[in-house]
Design brief:
Helix content: 40-55%
Distance between the termini: 30 Å
Number of strands: 9
CATH topology of one domain: 2-enoyl-CoA Hydratase, Chain A, domain 1
CATH class of one domain: Alpha Beta
CATH architecture of one domain: Alpha-Beta Complex
Order of helices and strands: EEHEEHHEEHEEHHEH
Structural class: alpha/beta
Number of helices: 7
Strand order of the largest sheet: 1-2-3-5-7
Largest sheet: 5 strands, mixed
CATH superfamily of one domain: 2-enoyl-CoA Hydratase, Chain A, domain 1
């Protein structure tokens, strides 16, 4: 694995994103996450999974610098794979926690909201949220619905349209993180 570190404990595993300083999501990371979560689902000895990042960054979202260089086929393949990973994580049948180690905008938030529980690092500077609309990226109705599941429909729609990134205490008050 080039973008992930897997730490096996007695009956659970920690999947740490390890791609540069900010864990920007590219096609390789999407493929590796999909493979790892499939293996974790099939392993009877693994009772749960924690997805985490590095200090100060859970994931800064999609690696736009890399994605801009993809041709049309590559970008379509990437977004198809990212959507499939999102669905795979939503359906993951074992306890699944996101330990949000810092900033988690856009694609990082997409990964986090698929988990059963989200615990965010303390710090007034860390932000989480879906700011895709603010940078002119369309998001699916399924993603909007998942965001609304945690925040409520009104708040989710308002924050998505504003491109609002929430500070930790705001995310806690809105129900986006559990602690």
């Amino acid at each position: 694995m080039n973008t992930l570190e897997i730490i096996h404990k007695e009956n659970y595993s920690i999947v740490r994103m390890k791609r540069g300083k900010v864990n920007a999501i590219n096609h390789e990371m999407v493929r590796e996450l999909s493979i790892v979560f499939e293996e974790m689902e099939e392993a009877s000895s693994i009772k749960g999974v924690i997805l985490t990042g590095q200090p100060h960054y859970f994931s800064a979202g999609l690696d736009l610098i890399e994605l801009i260089r993809y041709n049309e086929e590559e970008i379509n393949d990437f977004f198809r794979a990212f959507g499939e990973l999102y669905d795979q994580l939503l359906r993951f049948p074992k306890p699944f926690i996101s330990a949000i180690t810092g900033h988690s905008p856009a694609g990082g938030c997409v990964l986090a909201i698929t988990s059963d529980n989200r615990y965010m690092a303390e710090g007034e500077k860390y932000r989480i949220g879906l700011n895709e609309v603010a940078v002119n990226i369309q998001i699916s109705q399924g993603l909007i619905d998942a965001y609304a599941f945690w925040l409520g429909e009104g708040l989710a729609n308002r924050y998505i349209l504003e491109g609002k990134l929430l500070l930790g205490p705001e995310a806690l008050a809105a129900g986006l993180v559990d602690d």
